[in-house]
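Q&A log
Question type: sequence-to-structure
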Amino acid sequence: MDRLTRRQLVATGVVVALAVVATLLLSPRGILEAVAGLSERPLLFGAALAVLYLVRPLFAWPISPISALVGYVLGMSYGVPVALVGAVLTCVPPFLFARHVGTAGGLFGRLNDAGRRVVEVTGATRGVLAARLSPLPADPVSYGAGLSGVSLRAYLAGTLVGEIPWVFVEVLAGASMRRLTLSGIDAGVHVLLASFALAVLVVAGPAYRHVRASQPG
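Response status: OK
Response body:
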């Protein structure tokens, strides 16, 4: 193992440890409740929500509770577009970080090379879209796209479209809690199943052509 790879592994371990410590010291539930308490003050609520989306990757929190919070406070009509913009916003910092370290060589450089080969098969936007539609955690997808050298434009497009079904279901869950009803949750399950099926279909064609092209004769 070369020195650069060792340094990258140590740095990654430190970042993960800091995220774990921060998660243990800061209660996501308490922070979400504090932000929800600002719902009667729209400007403060909007500012706190923006900060929450920006710092979320530092703690490796999932996006879904924030989207549910938006649905609880704003309902479906305003909640879906606000949560969708927030979901895209919160995925940008890890992507940009991974794009930066992906050119450094070492372990990250090897991951960059492997990611680029995958993107060559699926296409940049299509690959990000399929990953977002699938039930994968948001941050690994962001880091993977950054390490793969995906352009910012392709990343934003794939993330925006791919997050739509997930944001819809999460906002629906929050709005349902506000109305004290679970009537929308059953519909949300069907949306998620359809999203996963669509993720498979998005990459099925390129994957099939790649396999056929790689077969001898």
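Response note: The radius of gyration is 19 Å.
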